[in-house]
Amino acid sequence: MNIKPQKRSLLRRIGRWLAWLGLLIVGLLIGGWAFQRWASQRDRQQFLPAEQQIMLNGHAMRLICMGSGSPTIVLESGLGDGADVWGLVQPALAEQYRVCAYDRVGMGWSAAVANKADRASIAQTLHELLSQANVSAPYVLVGHSAGGLYVREYAQRYPEQVIGLVLVDSSHEQQRQRQPQLAEDPFAIMRQSMQACDALAPFGIIRLTKLFEQSQSTYAKLPQPAQASIAASQYQTSTCSAMDAALAAITQDLNQAQAPQSLKDLPLVVLTRGIADSTMPAEFEQTWDSLQQELAQLSSNSQHHIAETSGHYIHLDQPALVIEAVEWVISQQAK
């Protein structure tokens, strides 16, 4: 087939343009990759001082301990959060007690580790971390949201180390099967977002577009250094992958047929949000309240309080309630 010279010339020009476009895209991706590596390392140096790093099985974990004395209070964050979220509670409690908060694997400034996102692995990792850092028992464990599930798992595995629990608007292992079905599974939607994020993060696209900027309003009540640390940690290359793994694990952990195990007479305080989640139907909140009551009934020595002016983050909206709950748990040891 004969191609006219004009068309042949046009095709050659288009080919050259496409080649240059391809080179430009490759160059941008390489540049974005280099920028992401540099910025991630810069942020780690700024927000992860050496004294907060504990090497555990060859991986760096972030652990922040303040204060002194016994018992030790250990703070366990909710899904996607790290130690910084306790910035209104930890310093206040540290005036009287030893208080430790940490970043789970892949969250905040702790290194990502495969197959460590389920509640059993989280409890085991925390146990190993506290031992490696010479943080001595007895412990009062405080868990927010999914963290409430994790601290109960810890108490079941290591009962001799735990003298009490505080559950802060805690998750319940049967909540997914007992809550009304939503039109769309929020965890599935979040996983799709995190998987897309994971594909883009190595090339700096998530960082450059400031994808997580809107989520920072959740942490507006925290001190500025904590807000800055949270914001920077969200743009680490492994964050989206770790969050996807956490979502996959929590989907299973919150869909259990077996009811929660009894805590016998272990001192327990359950704090429940007073302000409903406006994104969920009323039936969802009614079931949530019932599940919270069930959690309070796990121990024969428990209290259940409604945080009237708080949403899900009670430790940010009403930190004094969390502090009072910890103090009540500790007071039970004198009886």
Automatic annotation (TrEMBL):
Residues 71-318 form the AB hydrolase-1 domain. It comes from the Bacteria. GO terms for cellular component: membrane. One of its GO terms (molecular function) is hydrolase activity. InterPro entries: AB_hydrolase_1 (IPR000073), AB_hydrolase_fold (IPR029058), AB_hydrolase_sf (IPR050266). Keywords: Hydrolase. This is Alpha/beta hydrolase fold.
